């Protein structure tokens, strides 16, 4: 676009599910690429929603890339597939597709420091990712995350499996949706069912009006979500995260996904107790999508400072 100091492009590559094509976005600086930042987006959204943030990074010489997960955005071939990961091991398929994009970027920009940023559901994938591949990264930003015990995630997976016996894995269950998100809006007045996303009403309205956002997950997708959350919160995953990897936890102080800061603080304590290099910042008065809330400029500045401090 005229006057902007980056090039935007889109690519497709084969998914690990063996049948889908994964859509990805790349925001490349016009000049020198100083670092690569890979975004792992959240549930019921898609990569291009991060355009404003990615453009700000690219204009500072940081290339940004992000794929649409299986069941999301332009990686979906039919409406029936929205909110559906894969027939088997859906959580692992998404993780492998994330990994494929990383490897492509590493090949194109060999020697450049690589960072990841995972938001919401993407934060759970990111936490697992750093446990597997953190030695290759220069830093990780974990955004809008939370912490749940094995009983909660195990129960969620069991309920999904039980209903799927009768309804099938493509079924969209209002009961499971309420189980996962029913309490999120209680503090916020109920103007819409998504008020918990942002203090800024304009962002909530934009999310609701976006045909690629807010589509209810299938039972398959919810099972994958609970699976990703359970693995992210496991002692094994925390213990496997490299102690040398700088990690920045950022979240809204009024984000119900992070239990209004309590879950983020619990994760920070877990990481710290394992000797990890971890920082945490909560943004008072802000909700789940801090890159689209009143704290946006401060969040962008903090993330940029974190990346530049570890290039």
What does this structure look like?
The model has no long low-confidence stretch (mean pLDDT 96). Helix 9 links the parallel strand 7 and strand 8. The chain has 311 residues and is α/β, with parallel strands linked by helices. Helix 3 crosses helix 7 and helix 4 runs antiparallel to helix 7. Helices cover 39% and strands 18% of the residues.
- Strand line-up of the largest beta sheet: 1-2-4-3-5-6-7-8
Q: What can be said about the biggest beta sheet?
A: 8 strands, mixed
Unreliable stretches (pLDDT < 50, length at least 5) are none
Helices, by number, come to 10
Structural shape: globular
Order of helices and strands: EEEHEHEHEHHHHHEHEH
% residues in beta strands: 15-25%
Alpha-carbon distance between the termini?
Answer: 27 Å
Structural class: alpha/beta
Return Rg in Å: 18 Å
- Helicity, as a percent range: 25-40%
E-strand count? 8
Mean pLDDT: 96
Secondary structure layout plus pairing:
Elements: E1 6-14, E2 21-29, E3 35-40, H1 51-58, E4 62-67, H2 90-108, E5 114-119, H3 121-133, E6 139-143, H4 150-167, H5 174-181, H6 201-209, H7 219-233, H8 235-240, E7 246-252, H9 262-273, E8 277-283, H10 296-308
Parallel strand pairs: 3-4, 3-5, 5-6, 6-7, 7-8
Antiparallel strand pairs: 1-2, 2-4
Helix pairs in contact: 3-7, 4-7
């Amino acid at each position: 676009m005229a006057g902007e100091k980056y090039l935007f492009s889109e690519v497709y590559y084969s998914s690990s599910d063996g049948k889908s094509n994964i859509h990805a976005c790349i925001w490349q600086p016009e000049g020198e690429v100083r670092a690569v930042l890979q975004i792992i987006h959240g549930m019921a959204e898609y990569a291009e929603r991060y355009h404003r943030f990615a453009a700000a990074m690219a204009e500072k010489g940081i290339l940004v890339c992000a794929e649409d997960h299986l069941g999301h955005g332009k990686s979906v071939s039919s409406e029936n597939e929205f909110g559906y990961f894969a027939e088997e091991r859906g959580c692992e398929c998404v993780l492998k597709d994330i990994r494929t994009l990383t490897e492509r970027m590493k090949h194109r920009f060999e020697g450049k420091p690589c960072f990841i940023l995972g938001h919401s559901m993407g934060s759970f994938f990111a936490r697992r990712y750093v446990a597997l591949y953190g030695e290759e990264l220069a830093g990780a930003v974990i955004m809008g995350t939370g912490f749940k015990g094995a009983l909660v995630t195990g129960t969620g997976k069991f309920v999904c499996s039980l209903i799927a016996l009768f309804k099938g894995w493509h079924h969209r269950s209002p009961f499971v949706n309420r189980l996962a998100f029913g309490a999120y809006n209680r503090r916020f007045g109920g103007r819409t069912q998504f008020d918990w996303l942002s203090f800024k009403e304009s962002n909530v309205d934009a999310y609701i009006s976006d045909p690629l956002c807010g589509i209810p997950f299938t039972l398959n997708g919810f099972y994958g979500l609970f699976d990703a959350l359970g693995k992210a919160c496991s002692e094994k995953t925390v213990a496997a995260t490299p102690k040398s990897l700088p990690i920045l936890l950022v979240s809204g102080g009024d984000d119900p996904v992070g239990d209004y800061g309590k879950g983020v603080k619990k994760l920070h304590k877990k990481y710290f107790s394992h000797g990890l290099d971890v920082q945490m910042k909560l943004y008072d008065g802000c909700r789940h999508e801090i890159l689209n809330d009143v704290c946006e400029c401060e969040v962008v500045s903090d993330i940029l400072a974190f990346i530049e401090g570890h290039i």
